[in-house]
Design a protein that fits this description.
This protein is an alpha+beta fold. It has three helices and three strands; from the N terminus they run H-H-H-E-E-E. It has two domains: 56 residues; 41 residues, no CATH class. Strand 2 and strand 3 form a beta hairpin. Helix 1 packs antiparallel against helix 2. The protein is globular. The protein binds zinc ion (ZN).
């Protein structure tokens, strides 16, 4: 069974990351939200797990806070050659580009 252990652990980490991110998305508690996101990002880093795309695009790369549009985060869709979405963080004002896959 030895070889399967690493894969199993990876899956467990992913489940934990998902649990934390779902918690962060659901809670109205800003402190809890930040803690959950930080924990999830930290867990990914430590275990070299890739943050699932549906979550990674919701996190500001600069301050690691979750975009909350009720708190001033803004979306801007770019057209033309460099298609993509620009997200402006409501917390630190950082502009994060989210390229769209064709
Ligand atoms: Zn930010």
């Amino acid at each position: 069974m030895g070889g399967a252990a690493g894969r199993d652990r990876g899956r467990t980490v992913l489940m934990e990351v998902e649990r934390l991110m779902e918690l962060a998305l659901r809670t109205e508690d800003g402190v809890l939200r930040r803690a959950a996101v930080r924990h999830a990002v930290e867990l990914c880093r430590r275990t070299r797990t890739r943050m699932p795309r549906r979550y990674s695009r919701l996190i500001c790369r600069k301050c690691l806070s979750l975009y909350k549009f009720s708190e001033g985060s803004r979306f801007r869709v770019k057209r033309g050659r460099t298609k993509g979405v620009v997200v402006i963080c409501g917390n630190c004002g950082a502009v994060n580009r989210v390229p769209l896959r064709r």
